[in-house]
Amino acid sequence: MSLQEVFKSFCTFGDKSAPPLMDGAKFAKLFRDMKILDKNMTTTDVDIVFSKIKAKTERKINFKQFQEGLKLLAEKKYPGDGEGYGKLKAVIIEGKGPATHSTTKVVSTGAVDRLTDTAKFTGSHKERFDETGKGKGIAGRKDMVDTSGYVSGFKKDDQEK
Questions:
Q1: DSSP class of residue 129?
Q2: Among 52, 55, 58, 48, CA closest to 28
Q3: What is the arithmetic mean of pLDDT over 37-43?
């Protein structure tokens, strides 16, 4: 994976149709996900560098500005080391792409299963589902009146016999 591919993967994280421009949150996410932050380079440093490299009226940076930011952060991360940019670039390239943290997990508890079991429904709610548990649709929600005769007890088949 190249540096530009890593840049694009973080730009499009959460929105695959996004243009290859990175905002401040995704710039900071890159350094958090790659576990690059330490006492020499903090999230505050990342935010300050981002505000330095972006244009005054813009909110996002392109790949060229991203590389400038890496150079500035390499000086902060590896002070006095002439190869700092190469080291930082190698760490980013070797790392994996953007990761999801604290996403919503599916709950499977007994209460949910018990509340959604249609076999245990009673009364008018029971009429909304067939014996397999599938909903009947509008027929299960409304009282459908049989209008085949002129009185409720009329059955045409019984009269003909």
A1: B
A2: 48
A3: 90
Q: What phi and psi values does residue 133 have, to the nearest 5 degrees?
A: 100, 0
- Cα–Cα dist 8/63, whole Å: 9
Bridge partners of residue 129, in order along the sequence: 135
Mean pLDDT of 119-139: 77
The pairs formed by 96-102 with CB atoms below 8 angstroms and a separation of 24 or more are 96/33, 97/1, 97/6, 97/9, 97/10, 97/13, 97/33, 98/9, 98/10, 98/13, 98/26, 98/29, 98/30, 98/33, 99/33
> Model pTM greater than 0.70?
no
Instruction: Count CB atoms within 10 A of the CB of residue 87.
Output: 13
